[in-house]
Amino acid sequence: MKTLTQAEEEIMQILWQLNEANVASIIEQMPEPKPAYNTVSTITRILESKKFVNYRKQGRGHIYYPIVSKKDYTRATAGKLASNYFKGSYKSMVSFFMQQEQLSVQDLEDILKEMNKKS
Predict the structure, then answer these.
(1) What range defines the domain where residue 30 resides?
(2) Residues 61 and 83 occupy one common structural domain
(3) How many distinct structural domains can be found in the chain?
């Protein structure tokens, strides 16, 4: 799966939240200062070429919708992070976040509970 730029990911987050939207609706959800219409339109076309979104025509415009789920993208991104920075070890990755104090003992306990549910 291709990696998204920060701008592409921001638009995907909005589309995952809304399920579908035209460019104007995407812009409404973006923080100030809002990007230009043409900028968002260009990014959505890039997302289409990367096979992350598709569209259907509505009047003179397009309604965009995600064809890659947030869960699938998250899984691929986490796997790439583990591979590129932690030699494929999720244990090392979790240990790193704990050492950086970005993951509390309570967070770790919650993760273990979730893992036990799936077992």
Answers:
(1) 6-66
(2) no
(3) 2
Q: pLDDT at residue 15 above 70?
A: yes
Q: Provide the pLDDT for residue 119.
A: 58
Cα–Cα dist 81/74, whole Å: 10
Indicate which CATH number applies to the domain containing 20. Answer: 1.10.10.10
The pair of structure tokens assigned to 75 is 């899984």
* Residue 24 sits in the same domain as residue 44: yes
53-92 residue pLDDT tens: 999 999 999 999 999 999 999 989 988 988 999 998 888 8
Q: Give the 3-state secondary structure percentages of the chain, helix then strand then coil, rounded to 5.
A: 60, 10, 25
CA dihedral sign of residues 4, 7, 9, 12: negative
Give the E-state strand segments of the chain in sequence order. Answer: 53-58, 61-66
